[in-house]
Amino acid sequence: MKSLLLSAAAIAMAAPAVFADTSDKRIALSNNYAGNSWRQAMLQSWEDVSESAVSSGTVAAADAFTTSENQATEQAAQIQNMILQGYDAIVVNAASPTALNGAIKEACDAGLTVVSFDGIVTEPCAWRIAVDFAEMGRLQVEYLASRIPDGGNLLELRGLAGVFVDDEISAGIHKGVEENPQFEIVGSVHGDWAQDVAQKAVAGILPSLPEIVGVATQGGDGYGTAQAFAAAGRDTPLIVLGNRQDEMAWWAEQHAETGYETLSVSIAPGVASLAFWVAQQVLDGADVPKDLNVPFLKVTQDTLEETLAATPEGSVATTDYSLDDAKAVIAEAK
Amino acid sequence: MTRLFARHRILLPILSLAVLLAATFYMQPRAMSYFGVNLLFNLAVPIALATVAQMMIIMVNDIDLSLGAFVSLVACVTATFLHDTPVLGVLILAGLIAAYAGLGVLIHRFELPAIVVTLGMSFVWGGLALSILPSPGGTAPPWIRSLMTVKPPLVPMAVVAAVLIAAVTHFLIIRTGIGTVLRGVGGNAASVARAGWPVLRLKALAYALAGLFGVLAGMALVGLTTSADANIALRYTLLSIAGVILGGGEFIGGKVSPVGAVIGALTLALAASFLSFLRLSPDWQIGAQGAILILVLTARLIFTRRDEQEG
After folding, report:
1. Among the partner residues A34, A69, A110, nearest to B235 by beta-carbon distance
2. Handedness of CA A142, A143, A144, A148 (dihedral sign)
3. How many domains is chain B partitioned into structurally?
4. Cα separation of A302 and A254, whole Å?
5. Per residue in B287-310, pLDDT tens?
């Protein structure tokens, strides 16, 4: 996991070792939206990695395009334009899992490599780098079990009702509890991935709950949960966090005061750089399975200080993936 | 020169498209091929159909703010019912066209502002689309898919389709008697009524035609994308209005040009591609698209003003 935390500078150093088979290839990023901090960090990560890859001669070009209106028909036209512009591969974060299929089929038929990530597409000819949200939930309970072998009562923070990501993570958490029957979920509230909503929701349910030993969250809700426990005058349970800057800052503070330790896990916006290297590997002729999983970005006590320092206020922890990381992800999927 | 442009309103849209096309070919020579032209324009085919639908409404002095949501709904129906149970699918689509005719009756009978009614309807269409396809999916009926990806000899599908749409609607609206009367409703509804024409039915017919072309737009779109989602065509509302105006149409007076509308739709689609070839930042693209629109409209205004002055 440590290798995932390589900085962009390290990637620049690693790049010249790549075979030059793709040195004349051009890769384009088709992105549908740039309006939040996660997407901004994602575009930044693409820029960092592509810049060093181009300057080291790994690829000839790696240009990023973002549609102005976040509309599937607009992105479909954008992808068709990329075919005309003569790109060899298109890396796409899709506005719709299905509405781009026609354009993506056109790209495949024209001999282009298409790699989708985060917002993946269902067209079979494209590669998919998907997020295993259920595993993200299960992992949390596994960590709780390693820290609290005797088990106890858990509180579950859920996301925005009706969104599939919320269902997936929650299903994973419940699966984890099934595997670790010493735990019992005694309460479940919707924090909508927002600290203020989470704080209100937890404050509302706390008086009715017995002693809580651990909290499973979905990210963006851990800090609010901690505040609610503190306001109610209860002991701070083991809260699994979601890589947000405010959550990590709170964790560092708690650690300094009481030696509090926990785990933080989420998806890094730097997954764009992973998609870049996967596309490069496909162009290089490597045997890459069509379905890959995004590795989680875990922050542990050892990496907390470093990660927190690198994360701007109000943002989320990220990492730029290297070619070796991509190879590891590909090997894992085989 | 100015009089030539003013007399033949269609010349300016044609010239705009030609200039933009030349600039695009210059920027991206790869586009200058059978394959390239098809990629440039195939997604403009549903936009052209939607623009013709919008033109039918503008022709009778109304405006349709629900068209994007309506096309999205049609796309959802096409990718689900029309694929799984074709008979039911056809019935639903026919029902949607009837609903559009009903809207026309409602708006005329109770003298409601079309802009409000259609804005309200956009939420109805959007809600229906969401209930049919809560999450993106569905499959395009194979015959639509093969129709939209057909490779005719010499001229690509997108061009053939655009010419066909322009020719059929030109004949319908400009050449036939009923088309002339329909434009008359926009020009002077009172005199059309005094001449003995049932204006209510004419409006219903104009709206039904809009519904029909809206349905065709949704079906063509699904043929290209292979599946649908409930928000797939939301931007068609504004694109279609811009297309009509860019093609030489006017908001009032029944002054519309079917050929111009199709050309306007192609120009808008091409403008987006051109800006993307320029590598313009997305923050500037919407603004630049607006600038192109304003530029063409200004040119038109200058020509028509000059003509009026010169008499």
Report:
1. A69
2. positive
3. 1
4. 15
5. 887 887 788 788 878 877 776 665
